[in-house]
Structures are given as C-alpha cells and as structure tokens.
Amino acid sequence: MSKGQKTFYKVMHGLSILFIILGLIAAGFFIVIKLTNAADMIYSLVIGPLSITFTEGVTQGFSFTYLDLILLLVYIAIFLIMFWNVQVFFKHLKDEMLFIMENARAIRNVAFCVIFLAFFNHVPFYSLLNKLLPYLDTNQVEISLQISFDFGLLFTGLAILAVYQIFKEAVRIKEENDLTI
Amino acid sequence: MIQVNLDVMMARRKKSLGELAKEVGITNSNLSILKNGKAKAIRFSTLNALCKALDCQPGDLLEYIPDDEEGG
Hints:
The complex is a heterodimer. Helices cover 66% and strands 4% of the residues of chain A. By secondary structure, chain A is mainly alpha-helical. In chain A, helix 1 runs antiparallel to helix 2 (66-94) and helix 2 (66-94) runs antiparallel to helix 4 (123-132). The model of chain A has no long low-confidence stretch (mean pLDDT 87). Chain B is mainly α. In chain B, helix 2 crosses helix 3. Chain B is globular. The termini of chain B are close together. Chain A binds chain B through residues 175-176, 179-181, and chain B through 26, 30-31, 33-34, 38-43, 46.
C-alpha cells in the first residue's frame, strides 16, 4: 500500500470519527433544548439552499414535542450508524485488511442507512417546519409543505448495495485464493 | 469429495511436516491446511513438488469419495 493511500484512509477514518462526535453533540443539543424548553432559541432554518432567519424574539413561545425529538434522534442515530460503519471500513483499510467479510458488512449497512435516509431525510423536519411556519410573515407568498423523498439518495444507496454484492464476491475469491496451496 | 491422503503417505515415507514443507517449498501452516483437508485447491506445481518429495503418484495423495447426496 502506497503512503498516499494510507494517508487517505487515515484522513477518511478521522473524518468519520469527527462526524460521529458532531452527531453526538447534535443529539445532546436537541435533548437539552427540549428538556430546558428553550426551543425558541431556534431562530434560523436551513432547507436545502434556502435559509430563513427570524428576527430575535419572534419565535418566543415556540416549542417542539417529544415526538419531534424522537424523530430528530432517529435521524441522528441513522447518521451515527452510517458513519460508524464508514469508520470501521476505513480502519480496516488503514490496517491493510481489505477483502474481509466485516468490510462487506460495513458497506451493506451504509447502503441500508442511505436507502432509509432517502425516505426519512425530510420527515423529522415536517412537523418542526409546520410549527415554525406561522412565525413567518407570509403576506405575499404562500408556503406549503409536501411529502417528498430523495431519489438521488435512493439511487446512491442501491448503487452501494451493488458494490456490497461485488465486494462479497471479492471476499469469497480472496478466501479461495488463500486456501489454494 | 476429494480426500487428501497426505498424512498416510507422510507416515509411509516417515517424513515430518516441517521436513516435507521445507522440501516442497511451502510454509508449515500451508502444508498443515492441505494435510487437514481444509484447502480449497492445490496448484499443479505444489502437487508436482509433493509427488517428487514423497516419490509417489497424485493418486496416492488424492482420493475421490462419492458424496451421500450423489447417491454413493
């Protein structure tokens, strides 16, 4: 394995761990906000390329339910599971263990997480947005929410699933090769 | 299935595992895998070296045993 490759794997492993830590911080943030009833601290919304910032104090009295919190935590948990598997994969690559079943399983788990996110990506934000919309001054425009799913993510997830199938076959060939005397 | 009778030939020729591995040019662990029937395949070059070291034919090392599901 070249030095560049090893550095790349190390960086990717480090990044995945960083994302896991950020995910845990985000989960903690939402739990604290719910428990301290400080949801009116949320005064900025980012939906794709659109960012809405409320004037401070406008969202006074806004709060979210335990169901919202659970949905947000499920959303973060899926991210954590995904990045945990990514870090397992890159840790093995870093240690020069490429074609092993654990790596194949990590790829499969990432694929399942991505496919799940394709459907679940926007769900935690529907009810949050619904509750925040009344705080928007919408004299000139009409804003509505609709259920949607991320086709790009679904396709990516299915492509990763195909990579898993190929990787599984590679593991089988590697094992056979190792047991050829 | 194919059964490897390496242990029988080694006993006949009174050769130890380490000795044979050295003569054939493979590691002890690989020869052990072959002897215990855990190997999935054998290279012609390895078979050639084994036959030479044990002074025998491939048929002395490998034996075909019909599987139950094959009606044998």
